[in-house]
Each structure stands twice: as structure tokens, then as C-alpha cells.
Amino acid sequence: VFGNKKQLKILTDIMWPIIAKLAREEMDRAVTEGKHVCVIDAAMLLEAGWQNLVHEVWTVVIPETEAVRRIVERDGLSDAAAQSRLQSQMSGQQLVEQSHVVLSTLWEPHITQRQVEKAWALLQKRLPKTHQALN
Prior knowledge:
InterPro entries: Depp_CoAkinase (IPR001977), P-loop_NTPase (IPR027417). By secondary structure, this protein is mainly alpha-helical.
């Protein structure tokens, strides 16, 4: 459906509300269990308009050429099919503009790990004092 905007919209109009409902239920359950941080791994969170479900948006960005290379390698698609998939998503600039934290996986994994750990530590400082025992 990535190459057909009309078909993609039909699919997302069906699936996104269901997925959002399931995410809300999981987060509600986590809160009742005493959890203070929930992570939603949703590639299309901003496209779906789910910003109201979360307090912060963390985004991982890489150059488009690298994204195409990874899609081709991971999914066995052609360059054109990978490019079509990317064009159905928000641009990196749009994602960055709407995000609270921006990370990159362009470098070695240990560098990305340090980025995430630093962002997590800063999040802990932003949490109310009663929730900082999460580490």
C-alpha cells in the first residue's frame, strides 16, 4: 500500500484508531500497576496524530540515503520501493520539529547507547520527584 496513497489511507483509517485504543489500554494498565514511564514504539506516531497520547516524542533520524539502504537490506525491497515507503512518511525535518528528543543511529551502537542513556537521565530529572526512583 505504500505506493498507493488512497489504499494507504484506507488502511490507516481502519488500523490507527484500533492501535491507538490498544495503546491507551496498555498505558492505563501500566499506570494502575504503578508504572511512571511508558514507551510507545510507534514509527507513525506523529503521522497518526497520537501526540496527545504521550508527554514527549522521541525520534530517531538518519539521512534518507541511509534509510533507503537499511530498508533495502532489511526488507529485500528495491531502491525505488524503499524510496516510495519513505515518501509515505513525514520527512526528518518534520519529525525533528515535532519532537522533544532527537537521536540518531547513524554511528556505532555504543554511541547510540550513550545518546539514549543521556536522554533517559535527563528525562529522570524532568519527572516529578516522586517518580525519580525508576532507574
